[in-house]
């Protein structure tokens, strides 16, 4: 028996909700896509083509910090605008409509 997670018998009756797995996968994919976009955009803007050192120089580090901050702020402003306008940002994508329905059920419960 682990003092951190308890006995293994408590998990023998656990069930896996496929809807929650799907929701987690959608959230992970969206987060990974955003991260990869920030990475590629900021790297192309802030890093030179040749790498003379293994560490970032001060100018590169501050450029990346500003780039990421701007990207995050822009995403936040766009998200707030979509919420205020009640615009469905994902159109007819069934996965996102399913997520929205699950979130609404969670709020009502």
Automatic annotation (TrEMBL):
GO terms for cellular component: mitochondrial intermembrane space chaperone complex; TIM22 mitochondrial import inner membrane insertion complex. It is found in: Mitochondrion inner membrane. Residues 23-84 form the Tim10-like domain. It is a peripheral membrane protein. Heterohexamer. Mitochondrial intermembrane chaperone that participates in the import and insertion of some multi-pass transmembrane proteins into the mitochondrial inner membrane. Also required for the transfer of beta-barrel precursors from the TOM complex to the sorting and assembly machinery (SAM complex) of the outer membrane. Acts as a chaperone-like protein that protects the hydrophobic precursors from aggregation and guide them through the mitochondrial intermembrane space. This is Mitochondrial import inner membrane translocase subunit. The lineage of its organism: Eukaryota, Fungi, Dikarya, Ascomycota, Saccharomycotina.
């Amino acid at each position: 028996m682990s003092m951190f997670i308890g006995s293994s018998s408590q998990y023998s009756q656990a069930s896996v909700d496929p809807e929650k797995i799907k929701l987690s996968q959608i959230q992970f994919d969206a987060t990974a896509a955003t991260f990869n976009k920030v990475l590629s955009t900021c790297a192309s803007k802030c890093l030179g083509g040749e790498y003379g050192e293994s560490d970032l120089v001060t100018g590169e580090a501050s450029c990346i910090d500003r780039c990421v901050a701007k990207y995050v702020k822009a995403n936040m402003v766009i998200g707030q605008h979509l919420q205020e306008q009640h615009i469905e940002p994902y159109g007819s994508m069934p996965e996102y409509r399913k997520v929205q329905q699950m979130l609404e059920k969670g709020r009502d419960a």
